């Protein structure tokens, strides 16, 4: 069984991604119930429950495959040299095996760049020394309107979401305003790009 690769649209138009379904991820479903988190506003869950139910089967299969065992060499997808690839445009890390398989995908495609968004920094900490140079790590801050941002060990960047009211009151600088392909600050490889990325809540 091969890993399904998504063609993204909207803000991520032009990117390909390796995604999983939040509907079958216990972490996602637990976080969705916490009103003070960005997960309570999850666009991915909203899409799958309304106008994009066709996404559910392939992303569910991805989650099962990536989290259950190491990928066989023939199951690892191929990407173009110079291509920037997104991990977790939908879904979240399920377990360490999931992370290990994403590392294997990046290692198999050394001339492509991969960026992972995750809130599960403790899981990443167990394997931070194994992350290849073409695998960028973004800590997706779980809280809405965090007053202080930090980049955890093993990560290159932190991404946070803010309400318009908080931005106005606290004079927060929003620096995520364009399509990703027009910006690329989150896809520059390890150690590069803007350390703190802030986006308005959608």
The total of helices stands at 7
* Elements, N to C (H/E): EEHHHEHEHEEHHE
Tally the beta strands: 7
Largest sheet: 7 strands, mixed
Determine the structural class based on helices, strands and strand pairing: alpha/beta
Brief sketch in words of this structure:
With 202 residues, the chain is an alpha/beta fold. The protein contains seven helices and seven strands; from the N terminus they run ββαααβαβαββααβ. A seven-stranded mixed β-sheet has the order 1-2-3-4-5-6-7.
Detailed description of the structure:
The protein is α/β, with parallel strands linked by helices. The protein has one domain. It has seven helices and seven strands; from the N terminus they run ββαααβαβαββααβ. A seven-stranded mixed β-sheet has the order 1-2-3-4-5-6-7. Helix 5 links the parallel strand 4 and strand 5. Helix 3 packs across helix 4. The longest helix is centred in the N-terminal third of the chain and has 13 residues. The radius of gyration is 16 Å and the shape is globular. The model has no long low-confidence stretch (mean pLDDT 95).
Short key terms for the protein model shown above:
18% strand, seven-stranded mixed beta sheet, 202 residues, 7 helices, alpha/beta
Lay out the secondary structure.
Elements: E1 6-7, E2 16-18, H1 26-32, H2 43-49, H3 56-68, E3 84-87, H4 96-108, E4 113-118, H5 121-125, E5 135-144, E6 157-162, H6 164-170, H7 180-183, E7 196-200
Helix pairs in contact: 3-4
